[in-house]
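Our working data are protein records whose layout never changes between entries. Instead of coordinates, the fold is spelled out as a row of discrete tokens. Here is such a record, shown just as it appears in the course material:
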Amino acid sequence: MAKNYYEILGVDKKATQDDVKKAFRKLAQKHHPDKGGDEAKFKEITEAYSVLSDDRKRREYDSYGQTFPGGGPTGAGGMGGMGGFDFSNFQGFNGGNVEFDISDIFGGFGDIFGGGHGRGRRGRDISIDTEISFKESILGTKRSVVLTKVSQCDVCDGSGAKPGTEMQTCKTCNGAGKIHETRDSILGSFTSVRSCPTCEGSGKTPKEACTHCNGRGIMRKEEEINIQIPAGIDNGQMIRMPGQGEAIKGGMSGDLYVKVHVKAHSIYRKEGANLVMNLPIKLTDALLGTTVTITTIDDKKLEVKVPAMQHTEETLRIRNKGVAYAEGGQGDLLIKISVAMPKKISAKAKKAIDELKGEGL
């Protein structure tokens, strides 16, 4: 039965190349044999990706279904199960034996496969959430968090070697930094090349391992991280901290992503670079004008003169009392004034209103 490569990767037939790549990365992380995954499933998703990531092969697949190199629809010659792999593109193809370097195929996914002699290798990213007040989001603030994560060993600086010890040729790969694995199949022998797991592709190992991390160069420990939250940050915005994720021996550390949640304020709200507040005033103040004292977002007192209103709702703009932004400017404070109608009117007030009514007001 022909395989549905779109279903295998869990993408729509109209998926972009970026969608295909993201789906493959996610599934590869889950099913890779070196991470305890299902080898058969991993081969299946790799086969699907090799076709859908290649525009020419994808067009052929969409037109004819599952194909094999140089052939047509599935079933021709009994080789449809190869799913469109063109082994002639691999290094060392000679019609019977195929040798290829995993890093040549998956060089862009070094964080998944750990191959490529350190090329593109990086630790895992970490994502955390933090909550701040509205005032802190406007003025900026700092947060300090303690994370338990894989970090570089402080004693050996990530080398895995006991301080002062000499390095020697790796006995697993004989200093090559990579190892060859050969497997037989119905098409012949396939030799894959991958980074040596002992020396992490460096070709060298220490004569004496670091006793603090047992020669791994990394270890799980608590680490305090200071987060600088910029002024004017929005609710749900992410802060990326490069290199603050998990460490990996022989590669770059991942990144830390901090998602910021901003608590609502009882008075103020943010609209772009402006701060906005509602200010209900009495009917008499609306007619005659008044002066009110408000508390700004930085807890200072500010007197605001409200002129006699010509409409039931008006907006006052106070320059440079809003949100500071990166270009060096600052937004405004917008005070939305409305008339608060009285809930009860005394007999004396009714009489006064009747007199105003007589004046045409």
